Amino acid sequence: MRKQKTYFKHIPKIKFEGNKSRNPFSLKYYNPKQKVLGKSMEKHFKFAVAYWHTFTNTGGDPFGAGTKIFPWNIGHTPLERAMDKADAAFEFLDKIGINYFCFHDFDLIEEASSLKESKERLENISDYLLKKMRSQKTKVLWGTANLFSHPRYMNGAATNPNFEVVAHAAAQVKNALDVTIKLKGENYVFWGGREGYLSLLNTNMKRELDHMARFLHMAKDYARKQGFKGTFFIEPKPMEPSKHQYDFDAATVLGFLREYNLMDDFKLNIEVNHATLASHTFAHELQVAANANALGSMDANRGDYQNGWDTDQFPMDLFELTEAMLVFLQAGGLKGGGVNFDAKTRRNSTDLEDIFYAHIGGMDAFARALLTAEKIWKESDYKKIIKQRYSSFDKGNGKKFETGKMTLNQMAKLAAKQKEPRQLSGRQELLENMINDFL
Ligand code: XUL
Ligand code: CO
């Protein structure tokens, strides 16, 4: 094996030091082995680093070029640059203490000008990654294919009106699945940024949705034949880059999966900022997924609540995360997935240490929210208040209604006999106070 390059010599290994520590290179709340409701934090979360944001994205935006000078980006060939990037990624994962990463095919290595050469490149870099993964015990939380950056996908990938593009996308997904399986990826994600439309005027929506379902069935059948046992995730997002995306939000995706008979193999990957773009809270989207037993994974980040952009900032909002962790705990955690930091440092955070601060902050915010949710769960009246709120369905006629043993006529007769129903307070302020009290 070639000599490994190092990029973060000046940064110490990040350890848990507790909340009295003032060392910015330490974790204050995330203590991997500490148990929360009988399960270690490490197992609750399965934190993952996003290869695209942390090692690939140099900070370009629609108004200006990238600002970040990555020292692993200067090699002479694509393979050399990809191996340097892998060295940086694995050094970072080791120092920050995160066991998983997530990737798109062409985060690992740049796309070539032909499918054949791209496939060869992926084979070469995955050989290299596999060796590094073995020696470092690093794992892949999920892999995916980038079906949105290349100009050929301007009208969509699986939903493109041109079959040639759909076939190209299929080839790309096949190769991305092969790499994910080779690297023992635990899951595979579909995020369809261009699966949707810019104008309904030129779009046959029904036909495009049918194609998307066919495409997903084919991908799933292929992966299962190769022995892939993991879960497929769909990642809802309402818009951006398309005006309207078919995977709009959790409820829309569940409707789609049910309609096209995909519920056995597919679950949801819920992203904070995508929830807010859909005018939902993160907790709402988690709850919708959990109701269907389909809460698979999370993409952790946050948006900008003033301008409503998909800013992919690192998660920091403790109130938002604590609400989310209450849903997460009640759902019994994630089905196969983990917490992937699909987040990027700001365009002007140009030092290498900034990616450390960002991940430390994200891990600590999640840990603190989980600890708060646990306390609320164990030490407050939270459970009692919710139970009480629905107690009229626990016995008598309410129970009969709930279990389908009442007709509309019987209900009408009951209502005629009773007085104006009692007022029951929703207790929202009390419950909101609880989150603050236990933080
Ligand atoms: C885009 C987004 C993607 C997916 C993977 O908003 O979240 O990075 O997570 O394709
Ligand atoms: Co995402």
Task: Supply database-style keywords.
alpha/beta, about 450 residues, TIM Barrel, two-stranded parallel ribbon, binds cobalt (II) ion, eight-stranded parallel β-barrel, about 45% helix
Task: Record the SSE blueprint.
Elements: E1 15-16, E2 26-27, E3 35-36, E4 39-40, H1 41-45, E5 47-50, H2 51-56, H3 78-96, E6 100-104, H4 105-108, H5 115-136, E7 139-144, H6 163-182, E8 187-190, E9 196-197, H7 205-225, E10 231-234, E11 244-245, H8 250-259, E12 266-271, H9 272-277, H10 282-291, E13 295-299, H11 318-330, E14 339-341, H12 352-379, H13 382-389, H14 396-402, H15 408-417, H16 428-438
Parallel strand pairs: 1-2, 5-6, 5-14, 6-7, 7-8, 8-10, 10-12, 12-13, 13-14
Antiparallel strand pairs: 3-4, 9-11
Helix pairs in contact: 3-5, 5-6, 6-7, 10-11, 11-12
Bound molecules: D-xylulose and cobalt (II) ion (CO).
Cobalt (II) ion binds next to loops.
CATH homologous superfamily identity of the largest domain: Divalent-metal-dependent TIM barrel enzymes
Helical content stands at: 40-55%
Number of domains: 2
Class computed from helices, strands and strand pairing: alpha/beta
Number of strands: 14
CATH architecture classification of the largest domain: Alpha-Beta Barrel
- CA radius of gyration is 24 Å
Q: Summarize the helix and strand pattern as letters.
A: EEEEHEHHEHHEHEEHEEHEHHEHEHHHHH
Major beta sheet summary: 8 strands, parallel, barrel
| CATH overall fold name of the largest domain | TIM Barrel
Listed once per kind, the bound small molecules are: D-xylulose, cobalt (II) ion
Quaternary structure of the protein: single chain
Q: Can you list the strand order of the major beta sheet?
A: 5-6-7-8-10-12-13-14
Distance between the termini: 48 Å
Our count of helices gives 16
Low-confidence stretches: none
Shape field: globular
Proportion of residues in β-strands: 5-15%
Average per-residue pLDDT, rounded, comes to: 97
Query: What is the CATH domain class of the largest domain?
Result: Alpha Beta
